[in-house]
């Protein structure tokens, strides 16, 4: 399976996917930590995370897949939402909580 197929399988296989450096329990950068905390604050009782530091090929190709250059990258229901700043802005506006609730209904 190609790396692009693996990325697509991750995105399609889970309603909420956070590609991040580290894990939600042990984030390896402040931006990844902030995005994971925003998801939890928005009511995401569980979400799928992928540690891009464990897979150099995925880390190198995810920006091509998503057309987004940095990490973390949040996908909800197969759609790229954005990185840390967008995730925090959506949390502050209440929109992230709505998106999370909607995604968890379809899970």
Describe this entry's structure for a reader.
This protein is α+β, with helices and mostly antiparallel strands and 107 residues long. The chain has a single domain, classed as 3-Layer(aba) Sandwich (Glutaredoxin), CATH 3.40.30.10. It has helices at 3-13, 30-41, 56-66, 84-93, 95-106, and strands at residues 16-20, 48-51, 73-76, 79-82. A four-stranded mixed β-sheet has the order 2-1-3-4. Helix 1 packs across helix 3 (56-66) and helix 2 (30-41) runs parallel beside helix 4 (84-93). The two termini are 25 Å apart.
Q: What general form does the structure show? A: globular
The domain tally reads 1
Strand order of the largest sheet: 2-1-3-4
CATH superfamily: Glutaredoxin
Rounded to an integer in angstroms, the radius of gyration calculated over CA atoms is 13 Å
Helix and strand run: HEHEHEEHH
Beta-strand proportion: 15-25%
CATH-assigned fold name: Glutaredoxin
What is the overall pLDDT average? 96
CATH architecture: 3-Layer(aba) Sandwich
Count of runs of 4 or more consecutive helical residues: 5
Helix-residue proportion = 40-55%
CATH class: Alpha Beta
Pfam family, one: Glutaredoxin
Protein name: Glutaredoxin
Binding site for glutathione: 21, 59, 71, 84-85
GO molecular function, one term: metal ion binding
């Amino acid at each position: 399976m190609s790396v692009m197929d693996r990325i697509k399988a991750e995105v399609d296989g889970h309603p909420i996917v956070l590609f991040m450096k580290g894990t939600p329990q042990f984030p390896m950068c402040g931006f990844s930590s902030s995005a994971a905390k925003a998801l939890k604050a928005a009511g995401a009782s569980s979400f799928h995370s992928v540690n891009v530091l464990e897979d150099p090929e995925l880390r190198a190709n995810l920006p091509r897949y998503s057309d987004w250059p940095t990490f973390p990258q949040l996908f909800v229901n197969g759609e790229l939402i954005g990185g840390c700043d967008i995730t925090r802005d959506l949390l502050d506006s209440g929109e992230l909580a709505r998106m999370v609730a909607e995604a968890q209904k379809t899970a």
